[in-house]
Amino acid sequence: MLRSLSFKLMAAMAALMLTVAAIILAASYTYLARQQQSNFEQEVDRNLELINSSLLEPLFAYDFQQLEAIAESLVNTALIDQLEITDHRGKAMADAQVSDQAAPGNQHRRDAVEVIRDGDVIGRYNVVFSSEQMAQVLSNQVSLGVIMVVALLVAALFTLALLVRRIVLKPLNLITDNLSHIAEGGGDLTRRLPTDSGDEIAHLSHSYNRVIDQIAAIIRGVVEVTNTFDEHVQQMNQASNDSSHSTDEQLKQLEQASTAINQLSASAEEVARSSGETAERTRDTHDASSRGVSVVQSSQGNIQRLTQQIEQTADKITLLKDSSQNIGKVIEVIRAIAEQTNLLALNAAIEAARAGDQGRGFAVVADEVRTLAQRTQSSTEEIEQIVLQLQTHADEAHDAMEQNTHWAQQTVESGKEVQQVLESVQAHISTINDMNHQVATAAEEQSSVASEVNRFIESVFALSGKVSDNARSMRASSDELLQENNELQRRMHNFKV
């Protein structure tokens, strides 16, 4: 803004001075042009008189050389570009001109100027005057005037710029700097501008000082309010933090309580279900134990009958053992008979051999008898082996039957013990069944109470959640408010009051 004002002042003064300078230059140019024109005309008149006086005698005497010399000398001056001389009859007598003539605009021609002697025209001449020297002088004077005016204009503008900077811009810059520093968020509000100049700038400085006084008073009040406000906001923030922590802790405890209640309810339901299943299983077990008692009783009867059959089988095996021993005795008799028969057949064969041809038939019969005796002896040995094996197996079967009889008797005793245990189990199962029924009833009641408590806890949990949300919202608002208040305090502390 200050640069714009300085530029505007300098531009206005420059325009004004340029206008004045242009007017002065225009007036000076007009004056100089008129003066130069008057001087040019006077020079022309003097040159015409000089030409007339110079040509009077040579024209009268028709001295061509003299005329040519005069013409050349006159043309060599800066004022004359061309000179043509004729006699009174128009006959050319001399002609001279410069090689580099002036521009047509700077040439001034005088034709048929008469040369008079004693009242008679003795000749004429045409002369071309050049105003180029006059124009050059005028241009030099104008250029000098322009340089002087520009120098004066620059000096005046520089002087004006210094005065404007010292008288106007310096106080305005001081005001602007203070206001800019305040606008940027800081500033020394104890600084005051001088008001002793007595001009409009002093009046502006006085008004600025009054405004700064008012701003300083407002900022002091705002600082006091923000300090008090900061204490209240911190207290509110602390309260909201405590409330938020308490509600969060309460929510955690309620959540844990709800979880525990749900687990308790689930456990109660599981206990009720397990109790029902246990009751069913105990009933099934009772029935199974009853059936087991019946089966044990039936097994005892079967085992007793089996024991009797085993004893009978053992007796029969004993008889079989005795019979096999008798068979052995018979085999011993048969073996002795076979040996005796074999011996007799051998003797008969010997006797038949002694008899010769008469005893051949008898020898054949003796061989057959001996063969049968040998086969009988071999079969007897095989039967003996079989009987021996039968006796061995009979002994083993007899021992096994005696062992089975012993185990069967122990099994009968164990069956009696099992029957007693099953009867005791039936009694305990009946007691357990009654207790399971009571546990199932209590578990159902506990599950109902737990469900009701869980509903109350869920309601309290929902309310606590709303309270926690409100506490968080209030804490967020207080935090944001505290940040804004801190920012305001920071900005206020930038001002020195």
TrEMBL record:
SUPFAM superfamilies to which the protein is assigned, alphabetical: Methyl-accepting chemotaxis protein (MCP) signaling domain (SSF58104)
InterPro entries: HAMP_dom (IPR003660), MCPsignal_dom (IPR004089)
Domain HAMP: 166-220
Annotated region (Disordered), positions in chain: 265-297
Keyword Membrane belongs to the record: yes
GO biological process: chemotaxis; signal transduction
Main localisation: membrane
Transmembrane domains' residue ranges: 142-164
Gene3D superfamilies associated with the record: Methyl-accepting chemotaxis protein
Bilayer topology term: Multi-pass membrane protein
Key words, A-Z: Membrane, Transducer, Transmembrane, Transmembrane helix
Domain Methyl-accepting transducer span(s) in chain numbering: 225-461
Family the UniProt entry places it in: Belongs to the methyl-accepting chemotaxis (MCP) protein family.
Name this protein carries in UniProt: Methyl-accepting chemotaxis sensory transducer
